[in-house]
Amino acid sequence: MKKKVAIGMSGGVDSSVAAYLLKEQGYEVIGVTMQIWQEEDPLALAENAGCCGLSAVDDARRVADMLGIPYYVLNFKREFKEHVINYFMDEYIHARTPNPCIACNRYVKWEALLNRAMELGCDYIATGHYARVCKLENGRYTLRKSAAIRKDQTYALYNLTQEQLSRTLMPVGEYDKEEIRKIAEEIGLLVAKKPDSQEICFIPDHDYASYIERETGRHFPQGNFVDINGNILGRHKGLIHYTIGQRKGLGLSLGSPVFVVEIRPDTNEVVVGTNEDTFCDQLLADQVNFMSIPGLTGESSVTAKIRYSHQGASCKIEMAGDDRIVCRFEEPVRAVTPGQAVVFYQDDLVVGGAVIRQRL
End-to-end CA distance of the chain, in Å? Predict the structure, then answer.
């Protein structure tokens, strides 16, 4: 008996080809687009909702029709508002830099979709992410980096649970992007040359600060730029406008470039310094999620990524309490940013990850 799988379809080439590959592998495939956009105006929906807007729905429906698979649009607006938008705003309010894609993956694209897929009688869910699920000899599930290293998305998926991983298929992880587009062209998919979505889907103009002020009704007051010795250098526009390592948009003329080193919500100060001041060799993180191992005893050597675009750096990790972990890097790393994820690898396997709280 064929297994049934619900695949999240964004209208893009990756998820479209993933649906095709699963069908070719003999699965009974159901296409699903997750309606998450909060806007009710049809024009705004069509123009601004990125991978989940009306144009995405139209593209996904056409692909499903061509592949001959059932297709549904499911409403996840409540889950997206609670777990992604509210989290995003709260992190900035507390002077941290969030990663909404990680939250969306964990709580919407997996938890909410998996629950709905089970209701539809599915055995698995699937996505078009560039990553691979594998089961290890110790019985645990983890993620293996994509065959296309430049497109690898394991960093944004580190927070998935064992139950979620055990019911996840990621067929695109075995291919590189050029191969995926070639398959799409060969089978005649209209989205074969569709460009990748880059923006945060609910803030397409990238003006995070205006969005947060508008949605919360709060005003975030100006405060002082200070150097690492506490000397006042000028006035900032409000803490939500800044992130660690930032150089552009500071509005300071000091004769040489300066970078954001620390954001202090208690005193409403933004600390700036030289590029060298943005480096450190230790960090503390919490909300730990292990994948390839059930837990950590003692010290372990891993490669850690501190942001999606980070190449990774050698470090040693050690627990510092029930849900806190310390990372000690062999060489200093730049712009350790509270709120971002630190993800640990051994070779191409995800060991686990956590949320950065502070540099040490």
Answer: 55
Helix or strand run (H / E) with residue 38? none
Query: Which SS3 state, helix, strand or coil, does residue 142 take?
Result: strand
- Report d(CA 312, CA 350) in Å as an integer: 12
State the residue for tokens 């390839």.
Answer: 292
Beta strands 349-359 and 279-290 are antiparallel
CB 269 within 8 A of CB 261: no
Q: How far is CA 284 from the centre of its chain?
A: 20
2 DSSP 8-state letter: P
pLDDT for 92-137, tens place per residue?
A: 999 999 999 999 999 999 999 999 999 999 999 999 999 999 999 9
What's the whole-model pTM score? 0.92
- Cα 135 from Cα 209, distance rounded (Å): 42
Span 4-61, pLDDT tens digits: 999 999 899 999 999 999 999 999 999 999 988 755 555 444 454 444 555 688 899 9
Q: Which positions are annotated as active-site residues?
A: 104, 201
* Sequence-ordered list of residues with C-beta below 8 angstroms from that of 331, at least 6 positions apart, any chain: 281, 313, 314
Between 86-93 and 208-216, two packed helices, what is the crossing angle to 10 degrees?
Answer: 100
Q: How many whole angstroms separate alpha carbon 279 and alpha carbon 274? A: 10
Distance CA 175, CA 152 (A): 11
Q: Residue 339 is encoded by which pair of tokens? A: 């709120």
